[in-house]
Amino acid sequence: MTSLLIERPLPHGGRLVERVVRDKEVAKKMIKGCPTYDIKPTLHFETGVPVRNVYREIMSICYGFFSPVEGSMTQAEVERVLKERRLLNDWIFPFPLVFDISKEDYKKLGVTKGDRLVLNLKGKPFAILDIEEIWEIDDPERFAHRVFGTPEDNPEVVRQRFDKKHPGWVIYRSLQPIVLAGKYTIINEPKFRPPFDRFWYPPRKCREKFDELGWRTAIAHQTRNVPHVGHEFLMKNAAYTGDIEPCHGILVNAIIGVKRRGDYPDETIVEAQEAVSTAGYIKPERRFVSICLWDMRYGNPLESLLHAIIRQNMGCTHHMFGRDHAAVGEYYDMWATQILWTKGIPSFGFDKSPIDIPYGVQIRPQNMREFAYCPVCKEMAYSENCGHKREGISGSLLRGMIAEGVQPPSVIMRPEVYKVVVKWWKHFGYPFCNEKYVRDKERDLEVELEDL
Q1: Which one, of 293, 256, 291, lies nearest residue 274 by Cα?
Q2: CA 231, CA 225: separation in Å to the nearest integer?
């Protein structure tokens, strides 16, 4: 089947959510006389280190990345997401999205159902939340376990019980108890700081970019990483980046937000991904880099479902999925994502692949194994093709080499990519995410606001 027979999918839910007011006078009238609340980061329940800022969810909701979600979820909607991974309107969705505050802040605010709350970001008006319901998370630890599953409830793919070593579990365990549910609207559009400004392609703009490039079909590459040559070959082969089908181009979509210790800084990730194209390893007219704001949950099959929704909303026709997709540790089976996309995971509510069920997704999965260096073939070889013993590319080994100041050989990491790593290493004083980077990121964020 050629791409001529493949239509660009509709947004998940049938339409793109766009809840952004760009007229300042209209915005001022909308917030006049309303109570205000300064958005606070979610802090690790033990260490106090920032693990999430809900502003990123508000951005991704209001610009349509998470369509058809329009705001902080009601208790009934969260319950359905946790039980069936579906919204109340039946469309599949993997994670609860909530605006949570402390009991103390709730008492001070004095808001109730029907009120409009102005959400300030770093002291400036940013968005509004029209409150539809106020409910309480009574047991955050149980809540976190329900989000990701347990070996008892989800034996198909969950291999060990989640705990505080898992950064996504920590996010839900660290939520404040009071949830203000309702729709968000951005009333003061943020401006992205460099280098993120040139990678901002929200769904409508991304679809327009595909039209400009003449892409009828596009395959998404999810990333939270600096690319090594194995990633590059994965993209080339998943997309057939010669002059044949199925895909006209590759959308690299980097997740920007709080990440675990040892991941690369976001600035390094986006510019290193960009370097693959600017250096000509994959033609720029066949690939471009974009971002999505989201504090990673590292949810493997569930995260892959969110990624599929995001990239379908952006206009992609295909999505590549590999081993241990969006995973950390050994909580899930290493092939859990591919199990989901080939036959489903019944205990999560999917008795078939998410593309084969009512109110599922339209984007097509491209399940891939992995590329490794073959010393016999003297090239990167796909695991299903080469019969020789290959040398896998270990991310931890690469990070170890970089931490020692050793430039990886070009067969593993392109020199242009390494230069980007060194550039931001010099800028920050360290090559990988650590507590200082996370705290500084919370202080500065990726965006800035003008006065309204």
Answers
A1: 291
A2: 9
244 confidence band (pLDDT: 50, 70, 90):
very low
Of the chain, the percentage scoring pLDDT greater than 70 comes to 91
CB atoms within 10 A of CB 22: 10
Domains and their CATH numbers in the chain: 3-190 (3.10.400.10), 196-444 (3.40.50.620)
Contact residues for 331 (Cβ-Cβ < 8 A; gap 6+): 148, 158, 159, 160, 162, 166, 300
Per-residue pLDDT, averaged over 268-274, amounts to: 98
The token pair at 127 is 């968005």
Sequence-ordered list of residues with C-beta below 8 angstroms from that of 33, at least 6 positions apart, any chain: none
d(CA 292, CA 308): 13
Yes or no: say if 283 and 268 are a contact pair by the CB < 8 Å rule.
no
Q: How far apart are CA 108 and CA 85, in angstroms?
A: 34
- Report yes or no: 200 and 290 within 8 Å, Cβ to Cβ: yes
Q: Distance of alpha carbon 377 from its chain centroid, rounded?
A: 36
Interatomic CA distance for residues 261 and 273, integer angstroms: 20
Lowest mean pLDDT segment, chosen from 39-43, 96-100, 220-224, 407-411: 407-411
- For residue 365, the model assigns a pLDDT of 93
Report the DSSP pairing between strands 218-223 and 318-321: parallel
Torsion of CA 338, 340, 344, 349, to 10 degrees: 170
273-305: burial string, b at 16+ Cβ within 10 Å, e else: bbbbbeeebbeeebbbbbbbbbbbbbbbbbbbb
Distance CA 232, CA 356 (A): 30
